[in-house]
Please model this.
Amino acid sequence: MWVDGAGGYLVCLGNTVTLGQANPNSIVDVPIFGDLSRNHATIIRDGEGYLVRSQRDLWVNNRATSQATLRDGDIVRLGKAVELRFSLPCAVSETARLQLISRHRLHLSLAGILLMADTCVLGSAGRSHVQAAAAAGQIVLYRQGDGLGCRGDETVEVDGQTYSSRGPVRLPARVTVGELSFSLEPLSHPLSQV
Amino acid sequence: MKFTYASGSRPLEGYTIKRGVGHGGFGEVYYAVSDGGKEVALKLVQHNLDVELRGVAQCMNLKHPNLVTLYDLRTNDAGENFVVMEFISGQCLSDVLEASPQGLPLDHVAQWIRGLCGGIGYLHDKGIVHRDLKPGNVFIEDGVVKIGDYGLSKFITASRRSGQTESVGTVHYMAPEISRGKYDREIDIYAAGIILYEMITGDVPFDGETVGEILMKHLTAQPDVSRLPDPYRQVVLRALAKDPADRFASMEQLTAGLNGVLTHAGPLPTSVDHTGHSLPPLHAPALATGLATTCSVPFAISSVYEGFAEANGILKFTGGELTMQFQVKDSILGAVKSALRDVRISPSALESVSFTPGWLSHQLVIQCNDMTAISHLPTSKSGRVALTIAKSDQEAAERLVSAVHAALPRMLAVSGPRFVYAAAEEQGPWLQRTRSKLRAWYRQPWRPKDYVLAALGVVTAASIWFAPYLALAGIVLMVLVLMSRSKFPAGTTNSSPAPVVLAPPMAPSVATSVAATVAHQTSNDPAPPVVAATPSPVRALQPPRNAGSRDLPPKPARTRLAEAAGAMLLATLLAGVASVLAAGLMQFGKFEECVLLAALTLVGSWAVIVPGKMMEGRTGDPVLRRLAMAAIGLGLGWGATYLDGLLAVGWLSDPRPAPRMFQSLEWLPRSLGEASYFGLLFLGPRWWRLADSRRELRFNPWLVIVPGFWAAVVSSFWHGGPQNPEMWRVVATGLIAAVTQLACPWEDAAARRKAA
Model:
């Protein structure tokens, strides 16, 4: 997902998200350029929250562990140096955001990874999953059946079609609501989209 | 934010736009990926076309680590012009400033200004004036400062009006002469001065409601530099001079004005936080004062975690920052588990540092509130690192603690970490008082009068056969010293350890040397704690084994040989004089006794000087060294026994009976029994220290008393009862120790440190 004026995000829709080393044959959802195993850790979302699990080197808030539940603000360290901040910015949404805080990166310059549950909020408020600095409005991306939909507080334009407040989102899609715009494009990985 | 091109569009052959980044003075900026996967920034030039394009063409092949690299200038079929540039994923200085409205930490300021001056200085060197220097054009990526938008604004006023949001913002960085149409490099220096001011204080020096008001202030008002710390104040004042001729002539000059600060600047945080939270808390009063203090100490950590890992390395304190350079090893196999790492702990991450002297080694405990800083160390689960510092490096460790401490108050004025010297303060008040008195007495530099008094006292006590009492006093004294040194109190354990907070030493230079005076604080004293990091009297018993050898490289063998030869020569003279004196005091009956004592003293001191000089400046196992000394002692004993027989003195041969312990072992040669005493004598104390030119004191009476006491103990067990040590043995041992110390050259520790 590319949000104009804000950044790119990797949106993972699955309940289980794997993290590991980026290489040409990456088998994980979140491939990181770092000193990691190919399949280093798994983050699982269940009804109660998020759980990180790894057979490898895993630290949560500087505690070595093999499994931990994640809370807002937790720092997850994989391997020797790859560090991610886990946050749950929006209280009413289960969607979580992961940000690389060490000097590591994915294959593209991304601001974060969204582990999308039911909804994902884009806006200028601090509780948004994607913070767009100059955005006047707000867009909520939500699951609709097998696909996605979005709603805004004013007219929603999806791929040139105008909807009054809600519109379906089919990949690849271009969504504009007022000053705020983003594009969703599929990634070659089965469970995630950029 | 509206962008002309949406994600996925390809306005330029070979590049796919992913998202809009922002609007610059000249047009929209996009993040795009080339067909080959290269990330670039595409700038769609919409305004001031010719100006922009000429500027870009001029700068196309400039290369500098602090400049955003320009890759290409392209035009598409529709006639739109794109500048293809390096994509910077980090933060922009204006975002950083927005996140810290009170200003940035000074070490970050130094890093930014260094990058800024580097990049702009390079442009000036190439004859290019940036003309649009402002926080919005300065970025940081992976700790490297990058300047963008250079060479783009030939006519700066035009570009400002065309900018959509910046028209007021950039006026803040405009030099007064711009109103007269002058655009020389001095305007960049002026802008750098404004940015420097803004980074430190969080505010621009000239602000106002309208563009006109701000411009008027640029022309007439003086900046309020009272908010700036010292080296920055003059630099900003000069950079903001109204007349361009009064400013620094070049960026290099500006950098030179800040030199003392810039060279010690720490790195900027390498991690980029998109919400700006990673910025450390503000500590604006931090300043360069403590930055010159540098010292290092080797340390070791072992812990039972992750397969018994241990780490060892060097802890350094430089410019307000602790750096640990270490390697993690497998403590069982000894295999290196990780490469040599460098971990910096910035003052803001430090919570406390405490130093606890121990019986076998010392502990330096560092408590960090930023656990990521030390998470690579094996014992960092709670941000606490306990470092073990070998006894031999006590001095270095104390210097480290006091240096950290000296720099601390200046670095963190508000809520700084606490630096604690956790000495064993558990004992009762009486013991403490006695200890501190003893300590003060011991640390006092001895005047010649004191030596004479001490020598007289010792010799008198010895000559009137006061030995048992002397021995008793020695035992009491030693127990006292050991108790004061022990981490665990001998009697009371109910009172909790009361760490003593170190008061800031007066000056770093004082702090780096071991403080000589002691102000002791009892644990129940409510007065402000004042205790200097002070070595306790146990140093007398166990001074650093290779004192100073880590400060300075070991002396070459040739020097040591020369020193040994000189010392042996001097020892000959001293041994003769001392023996005659001792013979007089002890009222020897025979001249042969005096000869034997002299020979014993002379050969004995040689037997200390030669191996001592060989061992000097090297690290070695004290046990092996002791065994070697014991072998030498056996040889000495054999020789002494032979000489005794020759001179018929009767100290070591008939008519004196064989040593008590050997009387039942009649098959053993008599001489071996006698010699074994000397072997044991040389096995006990660490004799080689006496010859070390870097020993603590030129003449340390303790190092005479301790061997003498040892001789009395061995002698009582070998020959007589505990009440009856043979006095000549004690005297001979004392003489060997005294003569060796007096004969061996000595380098003053203070002078040595000064020289280093």
About this structure: The radius of gyration of chain A is 16 Å. The longest strand of chain A covers residues 138-144.
